[in-house]
């Protein structure tokens, strides 16, 4: 089964996107519909919202289904592709919902894999660079096994995703399910929640409101940020291939958190100050994907540079925040 994406000859006609009403999931749904696929968007709205896919509701071939993936899951009719994106992803979210995060990564993944097996569908697991933990190898290649504290606060997310990778591999080897694993690095763009606690929405919101930009630690820790359109293109290229992965999808352009804050301040034209606050426990020191495998196997490289991606994101946040800000 192949889809039509970026000239890649493909054709999965009916796609299930779990977590489809979330940030990345909603962009996936939109893109797939645009390519002519039918899309079932399944979500329990824990951290996503129907508002993220409201604009798709009237479109032919789009269905929004409210369903908790850790409970009973049934999809009538054929499914060609399962994109398993359900899971809280921001540290603030998964620390607020630790058990739900472990459950969706384990039981939810079991159910999504079971569905792919039943339907004979290709299955793509949204894994994360967090499986590398606080990495001792830099940049991170897919061959690196990671440095994760199994009892630290972040383990509810990291270990759930590591389990999900293991389960996905077992379904491939034991049940012959056509699986793939994508390790997504920090992705940003429109439809992130202004209060989701991740650095970019936080800095952008603070800059727009003229509040101090809260940089954790001394701001020298690094991240590599990828614009959502690039991430979506990478995920769909993997879905359209027969590659099992795991494969990194992320933008290798690495920058310190302080540089990120200063860049956002400059691009918003804000005169906010920078305020240094405590660093979260087990916060990784560095993060940068090695994307050689994605380039070789999927022909994928990121196209959107940091300045253009941030400009688009800021424009969207300005529209959202300035429209809804209560008069002071
Ligand atoms: P998000 O929180 O915006 O989206 C997650 C969606 O999953 C939400 O709509 C939420 O309501 C839904 N969900 C959670 N538990 C569910 C359940 N039990 N049943 C049904 N739906 C459920 O997060 P996001 O940033 O869009 O991330 C999406 C996926 O991509 C996650 O699996 C995440 O681990 C992965 N990922 C994201 C990033 C990133 O930078 N955004 C990086 C690495 C991996």
TrEMBL record:
| Domain of life where this protein originates | Bacteria
Q: Which GO terms describe its biological process?
A: D-xylose metabolic process; UDP-D-xylose biosynthetic process
Question: InterPro entries of this UniProt entry?
Answer: Epimerase_deHydtase (IPR001509), NAD(P)-bd_dom_sf (IPR036291), UXS-like (IPR044516)
* Cofactor(s) needed by this chain: NAD(+)
Major place of residence: Golgi
Its subcellular locations are: Golgi apparatus membrane; Golgi apparatus, Golgi stack membrane
Its recorded name reads dTDP-glucose 4,6-dehydratase
Q: Specify the species.
A: Sphaerisporangium rubeum
């Amino acid at each position: 089964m192949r889809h039509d994406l970026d000239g890649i000859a493909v054709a999965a006609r009916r796609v299930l996107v779990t977590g489809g009403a979330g940030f990345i999931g909603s962009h996936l749904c939109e893109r797939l519909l645009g390519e002519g696929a039918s899309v079932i968007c399944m979500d329990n709205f824990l951290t996503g919202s129907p508002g993220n896919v409201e604009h798709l509701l009237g479109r032919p071939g789009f269905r929004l289904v409210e369903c908790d993936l850790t409970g009973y899951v049934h999809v009538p009719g054929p499914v060609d592709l399962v994109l398993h994106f359900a899971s809280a992803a921001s540290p603030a979210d998964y620390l607020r919902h630790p058990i739900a995060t472990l459950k969706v990564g384990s039981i939810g993944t079991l159910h999504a894999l079971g569905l792919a097996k039943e339907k004979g569908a290709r299955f793509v697991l949204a894994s994360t660079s967090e499986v590398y933990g606080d990495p001792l190898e830099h940049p991170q290649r897919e061959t690196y096994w990671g440095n994760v504290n199994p009892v630290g606060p972040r383990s509810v997310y990291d270990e759930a995703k590591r389990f999900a990778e293991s389960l996905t591999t077992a379904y491939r080897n034991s049940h012959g399910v056509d699986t793939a694993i994508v390790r997504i690095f920090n992705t940003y763009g429109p439809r992130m929640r202004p209060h989701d606690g991740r650095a970019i929405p936080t800095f952008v919101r603070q800059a727009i409101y003229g509040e101090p930009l809260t940089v954790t630690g001394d701001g020298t820790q690094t991240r590599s940020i990828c614009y959502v359109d690039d991430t979506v293109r990478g995920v769909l290229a993997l879905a359209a291939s027969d590659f099992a992965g795991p494969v990194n999808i992320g933008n290798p352009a690495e920058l310190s958190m302080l540089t990120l804050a200063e860049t956002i301040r400059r691009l918003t034209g804000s005169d906010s100050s920078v305020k240094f606050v405590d660093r979260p426990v087990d916060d990784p020191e560095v993060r940068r994907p090695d994307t050689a495998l994605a380039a070789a196997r999927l022909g994928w490289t990121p196209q959107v540079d940091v300045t253009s991606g941030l400009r688009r994101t800021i424009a969207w946040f300005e529209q959202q925040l300035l429209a809804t800000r209560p008069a002071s």
